Amino acid sequence: MIRTSRTRRGRGRARSALGSRLRGAAPLALPVGWGAVAVAWKFGCPLARQPGLPMRIATSIVFLTVGTGLVLGTRRRLCRELARVRAVAEATQRALLRPPPARLDGLALAAGQLSATRGATVGGDLYEAVATPYGVRIVIGDVRGHGLAALGAVVAVLGSFREAAHDEAELGGVLRRLERALQRHLRERARDEHPARGRGAPEHPVAEEFVTLLLLEVRPDGKLAVLDCGHPAPYRLGPRAERLPVGEPLPPLGVLPLPAALVPYTGARLLPGETLVLHTDGAEEARDHRGRFFGLEAALARAAGGSPEGVVRRVRGELLRHTGGRLDDDVALLVVRNDRVRVPAQPAEPGLRRPRPAPSTHC
């Protein structure tokens, strides 16, 4: 019985594999049939061997038809494969860079990304925002390079942040967890790319891979705690667009070990009604065909006062117009607006008397 069951399963797998191969070869069935007809026409039909211009024209038409059929069949198959690859890439991006919630603990959020790799949706930028008992914690980062080569580091950093943001009471503890996750990823890549495994020189050497990163915490009173690892400082939109102070920057993750003491910068606030725009360096380093840099601060000043979705949409549109749709680096934007209402002190209700102080007992 066991042997019969295994035999049936083996036959089922063989039939499934055969069916997959036949489905893959289906687009080529018609061109191959046309080719067989062309060969039969050329070598089996007496008319095709007759001299004269009309027969040569007829033979050329037959072979042209066969060639066109082969090209169209191959193109159709490649288009199907490309559509499947794009669907997988879009699903991967939705799982990795999932859109932030529209509202999170009194904050309104929106995000957007542009990939420098043509036809790709996954790049080397990362961002995430989560509500924790310690406040809303946000990370935005940029892995060296873009496309699928940077995907492993994005997975390592984001996966670690989504756990550490809830587990670690101090923001410095979160950053150390991210550093350890990236180090594990780099060690695994170095082992996989070692020459002893019979491979050539690595296309993207691990020694040159690092991540610039900004870690931010928005506390219930609007006070900010920031740790900056070589990442561009965000902009704060209020009456005007201005750079947010982030304190002394740390080295990017993967370049040098973090210092023993990690003290976040806490000298800034996000007041009710103000907006914070976090971005990667691709937004400021984008150039037009004349080599002029994109004016991100000016674009943010024009977008000030709008909703987070409106800020992302406007900056993205101006960036694409400035570059003509040709980006040299990935771009990520994360916009956070403080929608918490500052409640003023309420006067005492009429009819309620304040308790009188106790009389003094000494003379």
Mean pLDDT: 79
Give the class-level CATH name of the largest domain: Alpha Beta
At CATH level 2, the architecture of the largest domain is 4-Layer Sandwich
| Uncertain segments | none
Q: What's the SSE pattern?
A: HHHEEEEHHEEEEEEHHHE
Summarize the main sheet.
6 strands, antiparallel
Strand order of the largest sheet: 1-2-11-10-7-8
Number of E strands: 11
Distance between the termini: 105 Å
Strand content: 15-25%
Domain module count: 2
Per DSSP, the total helix count is 8
Structural class: alpha+beta
At the third CATH level, what is the topology name of the largest domain? Phosphatase 2c, domain 1
Radius of gyration: 31 Å
Question: How are the SSEs placed, and which strands pair?
Answer:
Layout: H1 2-25, H2 29-44, H3 53-96, E1 103-104, E2 107-114, E3 125-132, E4 135-143, H4 151-167, H5 171-192, E5 211-218, E6 223-229, E7 235-237, E8 241-243, E9 265-269, E10 275-279, H6 282-285, H7 296-303, H8 308-323, E11 331-338
Helix pairs in contact: 2-3, 4-5, 7-8
Short description:
By secondary structure, this protein is α+β, with helices and mostly antiparallel strands.
Structural commentary:
The structure is a single chain. Helix 7 packs antiparallel against helix 8. The chain has 8 helices and 11 strands. The model has no long low-confidence stretch (mean pLDDT 79). The radius of gyration is 31 Å and the shape is elongated. 42% of the residues lie in helices and 18% in strands. The longest helix is centred in the first third of the chain and has 44 residues, at 53-96. Strand 1 (103-104) and strand 2 (107-114) form a beta hairpin. It has 363 residues and is of the alpha+beta class. The chain folds into 2 domains: 17-89; 98-338, Phosphatase 2c, domain 1 (4-Layer Sandwich), CATH 3.60.40.10. It has helices at 2-25, 29-44, 53-96, 151-167, 171-192, 282-285, 296-303, 308-323, and strands at residues 103-104, 107-114, 125-132, 135-143, 211-218, 223-229, 235-237, 241-243, 265-269, 275-279, 331-338.
